[in-house]
Design goal:
The protein is an all-alpha fold. The protein has helices at 7-10, 13-41, 46-63, 70-91, 98-121, 132-153, 157-163. It is globular. The mean pLDDT is 83.
Length: 164
């Protein structure tokens, strides 16, 4: 074993999990924040939002070793932007909850979309249901973070102008 990676065979499992989990969680949070900002602001323009969300997320899958998910991710994330933009446009300024409603609808599609992709295209069948919990946790975190970011960033004049 490479001397640099020797700790993988010698340290206790608990310490390894903690040591390896922190960078992984940070990377996932950064990726999630990137996707949230895409959906909120670029998502106001369905074509650009769909392209940014789909291409960016598919590239993230490819670069992080999940290339098998890239085609599904492209379609799922692109449709999230389209769904969110349609809801934001329909609700407009009628309610302050429009961004939250749009985010919830987009994240609900994300959970369903990955289940369908895994069960049909990856041929996991009902075993794909195992990913629903993790995707649901990601969806809830996404809605919470998106709502907080939207509240803060929507006050920035340049962003306010672009989103109008």
């Amino acid at each position: 074993m490479d001397q640099k990676n020797a700790f993988l065979g010698t340290e206790p499992i608990g310490r390894l999990l903690f040591r390896l989990a922190i960078p992984t969680v940070i990377a996932q949070l950064v990726n999630m924040l990137y996707n949230i900002v895409d959906r909120i602001y670029i998502g106001h323009i369905p074509v650009y939002g769909a392209a940014a969300g789909g291409i960016g997320s598919a590239l993230a899958d490819i670069l992080s070793g999940y290339a098998v998910f890239a085609p599904g991710t492209f379609v799922i994330k692109a449709l999230i932007a389209v769904i969110a933009a349609a809801i934001l446009k329909a609700l407009g300024s009628k309610t302050k909850a429009a961004p939250i409603v749009a985010s919830i609808a987009g994240e609900a599609w994300m959970v369903l979309g990955y289940f369908l992709y895994e069960s049909i295209f990856l041929r996991y069948g009902l075993a794909a249901a195992g990913s629903i919990g993790g995707n649901a946790i990601q969806a809830v975190a996404g809605v919470i973070l998106a709502s907080a970011l939207y509240a803060v960033l929507s006050k920035v004049p340049q962003i306010k102008k672009a989103a109008a």
